[in-house]
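Dear colleague,

Thank you for sharing your sequence with our group. We've completed the structure prediction you requested, and as agreed, I am returning the results in plain text so they can be pasted directly into your records. Please verify that the sequence below matches your submission; if there's any discrepancy, let me know and we will rerun it promptly.
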Amino acid sequence: MKKFLKGLALATLVATTAQAATDQTFLQVRPHGVNLAMEMTTWRDLLLTKKEDAFGANFQVVPFYTDSCDSSDLGKYFGIDDKNVFMLAHRTVAGYDFDIRYINPMLGANNLKTTIQYEPDQDAYGARIDYHQDLDKVLKGLYFKVALPIVHVDNDMHLQVTNDGNNAVEKTAVEDYFKGTLLRYGAQETNFQEGLKYAKMHGDQDDTEVADIDITLGYKVVNKDNAKLAIEIGFTIPTGNDADGVWVFEPISGNNEHWGLGAGLDFWGKVWEDEDQYFRIDAVLDWRYLFKSSEKRTLRLKDDVAVAKLAGAAVGTYRYSQYRLVAKNNNPMDHVKPLANISTLDVDVTPGSQLDAILGVAYCNGGFSVDLGYNLFWKEREDVDYKEAFEADYFLLDDQGTIPAPDAANALIRTDLSEGSAETPSYLTHKVYGGFGYIFKEWDTPLMLGLGAQYEFASDNEEVENWGIWGKLGVKF
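Please find the predicted structure tokens below.
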């Protein structure tokens, strides 16, 4: 544990000082079911409510809504060179970011400049269901709990395409490219170009799932009237969806189908009490290790791939390379397609460690309670490794739609692809939260009602800054 805490402190320092991520092809955001702030407001007071002859069960339903609010920064994560607004034009145009003819050799005539802008947005809603069961009849201080979040996630890249010549044909051609529409190019637009199959951008994409089930077994090593300390072991059962690579900024519910195993600490202690009112400190730490599993992700070219293989010596030609056209040498016009169509592969992804922790204070007076607190969420950088073979005999096309040097040395191979471009960097967010509620403690079946809110601050552009609200309905029996 001491070694783990030292590693966590170092990782936190690195995460807060590292350069912002950019030119990335995939982002795994914080799962909406991993939210101690949402779970614990008012809930703790229900757990502490004493009821004679009760079965020892506590149940809550928490409807919620969250919305992201850092679209420009998040756009830089998927954008070019830490920009969410960038220029597609022929490389002879000053200030260009990507040669537009790499996606269609018929575009970019007469120095026409096309601008792309990303403003990614995510909103989610659903309900988490928590069940907590005391097992004192089995062993004094023993309990288990289950969390089951049902989540609807809606992601939208908000792709905007404009050009300085108000050229509707070129604007439509670029939009159609990212939609995955079949295209033609060449002198009379007679040559076949396969439409984009992966890493597409068009409108919003959504998904509704049971976003993983967490099961926890806990034991109270300190169990007094004014304080409790419990140690816990937890399991994450994947029930959400996993990445299929079809869309950029995929809507993922849960942890991307990764099993998890972990441990935690749960503490509360009263710091002042006077008859029916008291102040309480709450501290909870929940750590999970998420194991390796298979996903499909899009890989771009490595930054240091040989210039000769990149079909041109333009600066930064690895940028946006997942959208460059490739072809087979034996009959290029029948095999032209975006690199993403062959570089979106089955890969092994190891998410590693994930930590959710809160420190809060609560004021309780009779059945009324108010919670205020801080929530830290951290996870380590993912590790992505090749699993699927890369289709051979493809070459990058130049800005004329031809293969400039069609010899075997210039053919793309699997090791030209960047695994790191599909890895979500280390993730660190800071959240402030509050909640208030009332428990009808004198009822035969105590009833809990509550409301809560949060604002989650991102420490860098690979994290989703967001706000959220929730309600509470619970019973003890």
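Summary note from our side: Residues 22 and 77 are 4 Å apart (CA to CA).

Kind regards,
the structure core
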